[in-house]
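Dear colleague,

Thank you for sharing your sequence with our group. We've completed the structure prediction you requested, and as agreed, I am returning the results in plain text so they can be pasted directly into your records. Please verify that the sequence below matches your submission; if there's any discrepancy, let me know and we will rerun it promptly.
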Amino acid sequence: MKRRRLKIIFFLAVVMAFAACHSPENKGSGAFFTWEDSYHRNVKLDTAPQRIVSISPAITEVVFLVGAQEKLVGISDFCKYPEETEKIDKVGGMHNINFEKLLSLHPDVVLIGSMISEKDVAAIEKMGIPVICIVEESSLEGMSELIEVVGRIAQCEDKAREEALKWSKKIAELKSNAPKPEERKCVYYVVGFGDAGDFTAPKNTHIQEIIELAGARNAGDTLTGWNISREYLFQIDPDIIIVRKEDRDAFVSRHPYTLLNAVKNERVYPIESGWIDVVSLRNMDAVDYLKRICSE
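Please find the predicted structure tokens below.
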């Protein structure tokens, strides 16, 4: 009997240890989630949040990706993707948060990016609402970490790990199948144009990363700033030009851009600004779109 009792105690100890290893709580913290966020603040969630507010378009997209959208009770005015975001309450913009509306939603946590000031963070926390800052990634490769962190907070760790792995594998595959440097077409992304000057993505930006993953060369890969001289633009005379869809008609009809070979040869393509202007999951849509264009 004594031996059997020891076996039962041992079995229960193993079960409890196994459960602890698979709990979302950090070991020894006594909390559901503890983390040093991007503002170097030690944040803690005592329990798993059931009501989440996201004031970051990139984070909102990830919440949907990992399947936690039912917990999303509020989002920023700039969170417009996917379409289902239209039905979610809005709490203002990045710099004009509607604190009254935010409080009325009774969130368990507010997820923000680096666009929210520390002053606003303090104001939210004074209302008794935990805030976690997850700075928007500066590269596509970093998105996998964002996916996993949001997945932990939303209790969708398995789905998050799966999606993060798919994301990393896709990037690795694109890199391994990239054409040789001399075979890459030169792509110019029109960030700005006209009387105020010409602007494009310089080196070491996520936009260059998008272009390179698509198997092309960024026209601004030698630039350190976003300005590009018109003389240099005509000197490189890009093979392909991409421009926000709402600006395409104005660009292709304006002198002197009409003299560029890409304009003459109808190689100017419209693109969704949400695919390329900020680091987000939709950057991969931009990669696939550019890859298809470059193969034509």
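Summary note from our side: The longest strand covers residues 186-190.

Kind regards,
the structure core
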